[in-house]
Design a protein that fits this description.
43% helix; elongated; 21% strand; 12 strands; alpha/beta; four-stranded antiparallel β-sheet
Length: 281
């Protein structure tokens, strides 16, 4: 899923950013021996992601805190549902609250948005995938949230697959030249994807032996023609102009994959709150 040690390092950095030398409000208003339970609950309906991450945040703040999830990761919840509870020192709960909620809200927003896109193409063969349009430093978590929402991941970064776009084509002198140059240098296990803006470029990519052909901002009519032209000789990806209103008609053209930047780059945070119940010990 991800490297827990890497996540731990980031959580410590994020806590340093938010808490720094100490939560002055909490330390000045809450007695050190105050104990309580924080209840996390949904303030809207959607798909929940990031429960274990929130747990790791609270346990980093204070290993004595006990975090108990009330729902499973990826659960569909409705407004008012309890998501989890965290018990122990009130000072610790309040110091970790904002970071834990920020992460869960971001990831649950992505999972919820992704699920809406996946449901929109239900019954077609199209697979909904993300892009590299992620928040710097959060890509591994945001791509995880896409999977929780029922979507799939595109390449993770620039290093794990070849994607030849318009500027690469210009720089290399053409699609055939770009594909040949890449094929000569990459491992045999790595795929080559070519971005095509016209049916002529689709044919060039096919002739060059591309593994994946991305149909960039094509009309539905041209995408249908491209699918017929390719005839299964390459994976067909659609990209550009994809939203919840257009994705089903794009899927009906017969493409294999639809990449959607909106899964991560402009998602609305899912509304989650924490209510505190205190008890003296």
């Amino acid at each position: 899923m991800w490297n827990r040690h890497e996540l731990q390092r980031k959580i410590e950095e994020w806590l340093q950013e938010d808490v720094g030398s100490g939560d002055v409000t909490t330390m000045s208003t809450i007695p050190a021996d105050e104990r309580g339970i924080g209840i996390l609950y949904a303030k809207e309906s959607g798909v929940i992601a990031g429960l274990s991450i929130a747990q790791q945040v609270f346990e980093t703040v204070d290993p004595a805190l006990v975090f108990t999830a009330s729902v499973k990761e990826g659960a569909h919840v409705t407004k008012g549902d309890q998501l989890a509870e965290v018990s122990g020192s009130v000072r610790s709960i309040l110091s970790g609250e904002r970071l834990a909620l920020n992460l869960m809200q971001r990831l649950s927003g992505i999972a919820t948005q992704t699920n809406a896109y996946v449901q929109a193409v239900s019954g077609t063969k199209a697979r909904v995938v993300d892009t590299r349009k992620t928040t710097p430093g959060l890509r591994f978590l945001e791509k995880y949230a896409v999977r929780v929402g029922g979507g799939h991941n595109h390449r993770f970064a620039l290093y794990d697959a070849v994607m030849i776009k318009d500027n690469h084509i210009k720089g290399a002198g053409g699609i055939a030249q770009a594909v040949a140059a890449a094929r000569a240098q990459i491992p045999h296990t790595m795929t080559i994807e070519v971005e095509a803006e016209t049916l002529e470029q689709v044919q060039e990519a096919l002739d060059a032996g591309a593994d994946i052909i991305m149909l960039d901002n094509m009309s539905n009519a041209d995408m249908t023609k491209a699918v017929a032209l390719i005839q299964g000789r390459a994976i067909v990806e659609a990209s550009g102009g994809v939203n919840l209103e257009t994705i089903r008609s794009i899927a009906m053209t017969g493409v294999d994959v639809i990449s959607v930047g909106a899964l991560t780059h402009s998602v609305k945070a899912f509304d989650i709150s924490l209510d505190l119940n205190t008890r003296k010990r």
